[in-house]
Amino acid sequence: MTQAEIKLCSLLLHEHFGEIVEKIGTQLLRAGGQALRGIAGGTGLLLDQVKKALCVLIQHNLATFRPRRGGVEYEAQCGRILRILRYPRYIYTAKTLYGDTGELIVEELLLNGQLTMSAVVRKVADRLTETMEDGKTMDYADVSSTFVRLVDTHFVQRCPLVPEGPQSPEVPPPPAPTLLSSDKDMYTVPRLSLVGKGKRRRSCEEEDGEPRVKKQKQEGESSEAPPDDGIYWQVNIDRFHQHFRDQAIVSAVANRMDQTSSEIVRTMLRMSEVTTSSGAPYTQPLSSNEIFRSLPAGYNIVKQVLDQYLALLADDPLEFVGKSGDSGGGMYTVNLHKALASLATATLESVVEERYKQPFFQDFCPFPLHVTGVPAPRRFGSRCARIFRLLLRKKHLEQKQVEDFAMIPAKEAKEMLYKMLSESFVSLQEIPKTPDHAPSRTFYLYTVNVPAAARMLLHRCYKSVANLMERRQFETKENKRLLEKSQRVEAILASMQATGAEPAQLQEIEEMITAPERQQLETLKRNVNKIDASENQVDETIFVLESFIESTVKRP
Q: What pLDDT is attached to residue 361?
């Protein structure tokens, strides 16, 4: 775990959970697993505060616990904390696939960490009812059906449970329970008869005006245990990542070949999305007949043309699609590892072409170069990208060979190689002819270590996201007074509109914010939107690099 990852985790925890949770999470990330007393001593917080913060981290699956030396040891999950950055993308994907209901289900699970199905259905139905007009309400059965669809496609899964069993009075209970998860019940939805409709929020006057008997009756009903008490659900992040990976592969095939090829690959991935694990190097073997039957309805393509497309995909140098079996029969698979390697390599090539040569401290500085007074940077450019692609294709080359193959003058080629070497995009391998490693009797070969370059770029991406978050915090802090004033004015306008105020009065309230202040607010909004968009774009690069690195680690 690098310092850039710890810093980014600390910023994410502070932004979403506050200062106390951020202190405890950072302490666990820096010191590793610790007991309760050690965490309190390292952070200087009260024991009660530490307990509540640990409950928050465990509830959101950001920390784990295990028995250790007669006590309990807590450990933060760095990878899981970094996934907070991708929450908006999960929610948007659920909206794209399952509509507004699926969006709110995933959002509620991410906001609460773990929830029962009945609680999720009730919350989502109430929220959807609030947005409906003409007094319409959302039925619990409709929300429940969407929840079941999310579980069937493995986007939502059960949380591990404490095993039930008789406790022996002679054996003392363990200091920490052992959570178990069954693959059989992971995606089994309990049979619930959820009957009802969503409710709208009532104002304080209406609540205060309710009869006391009616209030007590409602409180008594709410105190009853739900029918699925003890069965909690969470978002399956690995399944979302699998969907993102499949979408990236389909887009890459569409850019390289055509839309029909990408639709064939999409069909193959969709047929294997539930049966293939997220870390598998290949999808399940599929015959051309199975693929033909599973193509989208209305997609006009005959079996002979499909076989030609499959043969063309299998013969492509990128090898996204390959034939299964030693005989190379009619079974086809998607080579996920090579697809991720191609995506990561394309990302590195793009970064090399657009990379700017900049001072070392700029990676740590969240402010633009013109603020620091540093002269304008120099771009690597297309010639560096040409050398980089040449090294990827030829694997190992001497400097003279690079000059000849790339057709670049010796002085420029040498300068470009040294620039990329200093930035760790390429590496230098020494092959001595004699044991004394004399320079005159040693081959110096340039090469590209793709996994090492991907890790280097991933590290810089973490620093970039941390810088963007700091910049957003800086912009918000600088305009804090103006933002508070704008919120007060909006609240006054909303209350006056609800009471039926005249247009002249509303205009007078709006004029409390002057024209320069409105311009300043627009500039702030535009800057914050750019920062948010930049975070999302950098996170897409992070996802490709992380997926490639994980595939190289898991690959046998």
A: 35
Domain boundary pick from 276, 301, 334: 334
- Please give the structure tokens belonging to residue 548: 């490639």
Calpha distance 222→140 (Å, rounded): 16
Going by their DSSP bridges, the two strands 232-235 and 71-76 should be labelled as unpaired
In order of 315, 426, 475, the CA distances from 445 in angstroms are: 31, 10, 47
pLDDT in tens, 89-120: 999 999 999 999 999 999 999 999 999 888 89
Q: Are 419 and 384 in contact (CB under 8 A)?
A: yes
Assess whether 34 and 100 both reside in one domain: no
Co-location of 145 and 66 in the same domain? no
pLDDT value, residue 370: 40
**What is d(CA 4, CA 346) in angstroms, rounded to the nearest whole number?**
24
For residue 226, give both structure tokens: 């739900």
Q: How many helices (H) and strands (E) does the chain have?
A: 23, 12
Q: Does residue 178 lie in a domain region?
A: no
Q: Which amino acid is at 100?
A: D
**Residue that terminates a domain, selected from 415, 432, 452:** 452
Torsion over CA: 484, 485, 486, 487 (sign) = positive
CA–CA distance, 186 with 115 (Å, rounded to integer): 15
Q: Which amino acid is at 315?
A: D
The pLDDT value given to residue 231: 85
The number of residues in the chain equals 556
Cα gap 105→117, rounded to integer Å? 10
Q: From CA 448, how far away is CA 421, in angstroms rounded?
A: 10
Report, as ranges of residue numbers, the positions in the chain whose pLDDT lies below 70: 134, 163-174, 198, 200-225, 325-329, 355-379, 554-556
The string of DSSP letters for 62-85 reads: SEEEEEETTEEEEEE-HHHHHGGG
Parent domain of 119:
82-162+230-235
What string of DSSP letters covers 466-521? HHHHHHHHHHHHHTHHHHHHHHHHHHHHHHHHHTT--HHHHHHHHTTS-HHHHHHH
